[in-house]
Write a structure and sequence with these properties.
By secondary structure, this protein is of the alpha+beta class. Helix content is about 50%, strand content about 10%. It has a 5-stranded mixed beta sheet. A 3-stranded mixed beta sheet has the order 1-2-10, with no helix packed on it. A hairpin with a 3-residue loop joins β1 (about 85-90) and β2. It binds protoporphyrin IX containing FE. It holds the Pfam family p450. Its cofactor is heme.
């Protein structure tokens, strides 16, 4: 051994250095033959085959995210539906990461019932902080709890009646645009129109101020009907799309600095902050003049209170008064919560209807039965639309708009379903998108689009176990806007479907797919990269009047 060492030292120093480096790497590979550097060896949970020596699953995670959901589903099936498995990673900022992927309903329930043990954690916060700050989505513990309490003021029954008027106002504009596109024989991007509607309505709900996105006049260029861009909307969408891909890029800070993204994000933040700051200043002035909000949710000058009104009149979790920065975070969080989720899910509804004419016919039959020929879409009538509600739920089952959730474990816990033990620092991942397609949860027809599965024998909408269907999350952090989103979506569906038939076109454009094939059945990844699951590119429809 000593002789070997001596002869090594006798070699020219660059050769010695290379041999030493090779020796070092080989030793590391021996220590981490099947997982990422620094992660623990454990025999109780199998490693997915994507894990490689030293780098773990980093290469697999870095592959385009376009059809990542399909890949995740394949992986879960390969490992065995409901059985946990591990993906290991090494992140330069956070060090070794052990990700436990779960898909068993009771395992998911253990995690979601306890948001104080399974927290959002530092990884998520660091990826999203320049967009969502310390708002409700990125907060844990008392900071989260205080925000949830304040925001829930807006979600009471009285307000739901008011929302109905708001939704009808928005969909009225949307219908005018559909009419104009039909008159011109042009195609129209439905996702764009819907995102404009919900940005306006959430601007009003969150801060009492709308962005005028859907009220713009449209025009036709090269056979496409479109509306002019709105600065706030562009800024919001740019930051949303950028932060969403960070989790796949271990060196995102460096990358963003080198390719100019950091500066662009700052410019977008300026646009969004200026808008929010103006609203906050106006509200502060009114408060100084003595404006108050009554028990009935109305201000002294008779307007409906928005969420910002409530946040400006409450103290923080630490007893302090929220500053402008915190209030801006409140607005951005509420807009991201309600705007993209609802508009994108509605786009998926019409996308699914285009290939399921029998479902569309049943929806129309119900609308005609409940509304009559010219009946008004009142709050009560909207609640009677059970088949439409079932169609909305079924769309969300197959296209869960928040497709992943990755809480961090802070206390050793045994998951109730599979008996798996998870430890502090473990990242738990479950995907409502994947769970929506598992036969072990939904039966042999899990991948079929069948709204009837949501209706009981009396025709009422079944109340599913939310842990089996965590599209709105479940437990103490369940989505605050779940009922509101359903009400909004059903109102939009009813008002559009009673007059128009939308025909999906231009789906043969390869740039809209993560993995394109001439055979539509073999295409994968019709997804945009954002925090929520939208459709990539335009979603073009031709508009026809219902005969
Ligand atoms: C189809 C529409 C919607 C879907 C699929 C949806 C889904 C979700 C999901 C999955 C979460 C949990 C996110 C997480 O913590 O990781 C969430 C939280 C939340 N959602 Fe929704 N949402 C929708 C619409 C809305 C609407 C219209 C609002 C109204 C403002 C809203 C307000 C919220 C809020 C405030 C939270 C945070 C709850 C908390 O952490 O305590 N959502 N939503």
């Amino acid at each position: 051994m000593a002789a070997l060492f001596e002869s090594l030292l006798a070699l020219p120093w660059p050769v010695t250095a290379i041999l030493a480096a090779l020796f070092f790497v080989a030793t590391l590979i021996l220590l981490y033959p099947d997982r990422a550097y620094g992660t623990r060896s454990r025999s109780d949970i199998p490693l997915a085959q994507e894990n490689k020596p030293l780098i773990g699953a980093m290469a697999a995670m870095a592959q385009g995210i376009d059809f990542r959901l399909e890949r995740l589903l394949e992986q879960v099936r390969r490992q065995g539906e409901g059985k946990p498995y591990r993906m290991t990673l090494y992140n330069p900022m956070f060090g070794p990461m052990d990700m436990i992927v779960i898909s068993d309903v009771q395992d998911v329930e253990t995690v979601l019932r306890d948001p104080y043990t399974f927290v959002k954690g530092g990884l998520l916060t660091s990826l999203l902080t320049d967009f969502l700050g310390q708002g409700i989505f990125t907060s844990d513990g008392e900071r989260w709890h205080a925000q949830r309490k304040t925001a829930s003021h807006v979600f009471n029954v009285k307000n739901f009646r008011n929302f109905n008027g708001d939704f009808l106002h928005e969909v009225g504009y949307l219908i005018k645009h559909l009419e104009a596109a039909r008159d011109a024989g042009a195609v129209v991007d439905l996702q764009d129109l819907l995102l404009r509607c919900t940005l306006d309505s959430f601007g009003r709900l969150a801060m009492g101020s709308d962005f005028g996105c859907i009220t713009q006049p449209g025009s036709v260029k090269e056979g496409r009907y479109a509306l002019p861009t709105v600065e706030f909307m562009e800024a919001f969408d740019y930051v949303n799309g950028t932060v969403a891909v960070r989790a796949m890029q271990p060196f995102w800070q460096l990358q963003e600095r080198l390719n100019g993204t950091t500066n662009k994000i700052k410019a977008c933040q300026k646009i969004m902050s200026e808008f929010a700051d103006k609203v906050i200043t106006d509200k502060r002035r009114k408060m100084e003049k003595g404006e108050t909000i009554g028990e009935d949710g109305k201000s002294t000058d008779g307007r409906h209170a928005d969420m910002l009104d409530y946040f400006m009149r409450t103290t923080n979790f630490d007893g302090g008064v929220p500053d402008d920065h915190e209030l801006r975070d409140v607005c951005m969080n509420l807009i991201i919560a309600g705007r993209d989720t609802t508009a994108q899910t509605l786009t998926w509804v019409f996308y699914m209807l285009s290939s399921h004419p029998e479902v569309e016919a049943k929806c129309r039959e119900e609308i005609n039965r409940v509304f009559g020929k010219d009946g008004q879409p009142t709050y009560e009538k909207i609640k009677e639309l059970k088949y439409l509600t079932a169609t909305f739920n079924e769309t969300l089952r197959l296209h869960a708009n928040v497709p992943f959730n990755t809480p961090t474990c802070t206390k050793q816990t045994t998951l109730a379903g599979t008996g798996t033990t998870v430890y502090p620092g473990d990242i738990i991942q479950y995907s409502p998108w994947v769970m929506g397609r598992l036969q072990s949860i939904w039966g042999p027809d899990a991948e079929e689009f069948r709204p009837e599965r949501w209706l009981d024998d009396g025709g009422s909408v079944k109340k599913e176990n939310t842990f089996k269907w965590p599209v709105f999350k479940a437990g103490p952090r369940i989505c605050l806007g779940m009922n509101m989103a359903t009400q909004e979506a059903v109102t939009f569906m009813a008002q559009i479907l009673r007059t128009y038939r939308l025909e999906l076109v231009n789906e043969d454009d390869p740039s809209k797919w993560g993995k394109y094939d001439v055979d539509p059945a073999k295409r994968q990844g019709r997804y945009s990269s954002a925090l929520t699951l939208g459709l990539k590119g335009t979603v073009d429809f031709k508009v026809h009047l219902v005969q």
